[in-house]
From TrEMBL:
The keyword 4Fe-4S does not apply. This is Glyceraldehyde-3-phosphate dehydrogenase. Residues 20-479 form the Aldehyde dehydrogenase domain. Belongs to the aldehyde dehydrogenase family. It comes from Candidatus Danuiimicrobium aquiferis. InterPro entries: Ald_DH/histidinol_DH (IPR016161), Ald_DH_C (IPR016163), Ald_DH_CS_CYS (IPR016160), Ald_DH_CS_GLU (IPR029510), Ald_DH_N (IPR016162), Aldehyde_DH_dom (IPR015590), ALDH-related_metabolic_enz (IPR051020). It comes from the Bacteria. PROSITE patterns: ALDEHYDE_DEHYDR_CYS, ALDEHYDE_DEHYDR_GLU. The keyword Transmembrane helix does not apply. One of its GO terms (molecular function) is lactaldehyde dehydrogenase (NAD+) activity. CDD domains: ALDH_F11_NP-GAPDH (cd07082). Gene3D superfamilies: Aldehyde Dehydrogenase, Chain A, domain 1, Aldehyde Dehydrogenase, Chain A, domain 2. Keywords: NADP, Oxidoreductase. PANTHER family: ALDEHYDE DEHYDROGENASE.
Length: 484
């Protein structure tokens, strides 16, 4: 079925100039399943010297790609979406093994990505410029006609995180390609195999050699080299705030699209529909075991309705199944033991400082049971740090203003949910929140993918979301026609 042979056994190669290649160093990274430690496969550990070739090849291919009519560029992206859909079961099984995402969520990520790619292909055809005439400016006598078009930036470096190795790769690659850029793609090491299956999809769809180059290797080894490379014209990164800020210090004049960490709050006001709020909060806090940047990561609850909300939350949390991703458990093993250790640190700190454990704090290696604390205070790390795991702190507040104050004190500013039945109050609270997006009466979430998605403060820079990404990966170019 696939023309592009990208692996021998479970040793996966990298895509350079239309060829699937191995590192000349012979170095590889082994990828183990977070669920049972089984070897999922091996990926190339590309060296800095080799990474240079991935960039130079993309640079060389980009000029011709930019000249390809956008309808043809869009057709390649549409074709890739069709192939991705055809391969959904195979790639979903890889996600299950490689990042312990349950099968249902894995299939959902893939289908969502195919939809994103189709939408991006169409949106790419609608990116237009404008024309202006000089005589609209007061007192201007010369006759000028301005024509503005959007042109590609050149080579886009796409770097994606482990939790959506397909969707958060395609959400960068597809807009970059349809806008006429070439792409150097560095996937997460844990998630690289799923990302290489996506790369193969683009390869089979007919992306010309060099227009998409995909290299694997530890970000800490080759990341700085790629980010600083003069052949890179734009960087689209999704990942931790720590790494995002580091990239920003190296990027110089390169335009950046950074989607980083979050500590999204759910503010529940006294007139909220408590049962509905509880359902949204549990789904928002515990899907993919809390390993989402937009997960609900704290509840700011008005004291008067705290107990009713807790009474509504606990039965829902106790219904969550815990176990293996292949069995579609709701709560599955975290990406690594180190990730689980960090979550445990936050749990232990909260307990040590007097938080009241309502459920959870049970662990089997990197499988952590859903955990909720009541009476979390500002002095606890869990109030402010991003666990990226299934743990949810409840902070009791006196009123909406105190909730807004605590929400705004966060170093993060990704999203906040506000639950209330009073729409005027919802907008009044929303206007005061220093975040990218406020969700009224729903969980915090990025989708649908054509919506703008952005963070402020430590949560990011720039706006992702199909049209917004295409605009971020292109620039205006003006031509002025002077006439008598
Ligand atoms: P991460 O550790 O920051 O890694 C993200 C990507 O950056 C990976 O591909 C990683 O490669 C690479 N990388 C690491 N060091 C680098 C460097 N010095 N230069 C360039 N690239 C480098 O994040 P993660 O663990 O994959 O994802 C979890 C974090 O990402 C959480 O904080 C979460 O909130 C955030 N996130 C945000 C969003 C959003 O849309 N805002 C979405 C998902 C996740 P390696 O894998 O080889 O280290
Ligand atoms: O952490 C990944 C981030 O992009 C969340 O996406 O759609 O699950 O809110 P979503």
């Amino acid at each position: 079925m696939f023309k592009c042979i990208f692996r021998e056994g479970n040793v996966y190669k990298c895509l350079l100039n239309g060829e699937w290649i191995e590192s000349k160093t012979g170095q590889r990274d082994q990828i183990f399943s977070p669920t049972d430690g089984a070897l999922v496969g091996e990926v190339q550990a590309i060296s800095k010297e080799e990474a240079n070739h991935f960039v130079l090849s993309a640079q060389a291919a980009q000029k011709a790609w930019a000249k390809v009519p956008v309808t043809e560029r869009a057709a390649v992206v549409h074709k890739a979406a069709e192939i991705l859909e055809r391969e959904k079961e195979t790639i979903a099984d890889i996600l299950v093994k490689e990042i312990a995402k349950n099968k249902k969520s894995a299939l959902s990520e893939i289908m969502r990505t195919a939809d994103l790619m189709h939408f991006t292909a169409e949106e790419g055809k609608r990116v237009t410029g404008e024309s202006l005439s000089s005589d609209v400016f007061p007192g201007y006598s010369e006759k000028k006609l301005l024509i503005v078009n959007r042109v590609p930036l050149g080579v886009v470096l796409c770097i994606s995180p482990f939790n959506y190795p397909v969707n958060l790769a395609a959400s960068k690659i597809a807009p970059a390609l349809v806008a006429g850029n070439s792409v150097v793609f560095k996937p997460p090491t844990q998630g690289a195999i799923a990302a290489l299956y996506l790369a193969r999809v683009f390869c089979e769809a007919g992306v010309p050699p060099g227009v998409l180059n995909v290299l694997t290797g530890q970000g800490r080894e080759i990341g700085d080299y790629l980010v600083s490379h003069s052949g890179i014209n734009m960087i689209a990164f999704t990942g931790s705030s720590k790494v995002g800020k580091h990239i920003a210090t190296l990027a110089g004049m390169k335009p950046l699209l950074l989607e980083l960490g979050g500590k999204d709050a759910a503010i529940v006001l006294p007139d909220a529909d408590i049962q509905a709020a509880a359902k949204h909060i549990v789904a928002g806090a515990f899907s993919y075991s809390g390993q989402r940047c937009t997960a609900v990561k704290r509840i700011l609850i008005i004291e008067s309705v705290a107990n009713p909300l807790i009474d509504a939350l606990l039965p829902l949390v106790k219904k969550l199944t815990v176990g293996k991703p292949e069995n579609n458990a709701d709560i599955t093993p975290l990406i690594s033991n180190a990730a689980a250790d960090y979550v445990q640190e936050l749990i232990d700190d909260a307990i040590g400082k007097g938080a009241k454990l309502l459920t959870g704090n049970q662990r089997e290696k990197n499988l952590m049971y859903p955990t909720i604390f009541d009476s979390v205070t500002r002095e606890m790390r869990l109030a402010w740090e991003e666990p990226f795991g299934p743990v949810l702190p409840i902070m009791r507040v006196k009123n909406a203003n105190e909730a807004i104050q605590i929400a705004n004190e966060s170093e993060y500013g990704l999203q906040t949910s506000v639950f209330t039945s009073n729409i005027d109050q919802a907008f009044e609270v929303a206007e005061k929140l220093e975040v990218g997006t406020v969700q009224i009466n729903s969980k915090t979430e990025r989708g649908p993918d054509h919506f703008p998605f952005m963070g402020v403060k430590s949560s990011g820079l720039g706006t992702q979301g199909i049209r917004y990404s295409i605009e971020a990966m292109s620039r205006s170019k003006a031509i002025v026609l002077n006439f008598k």
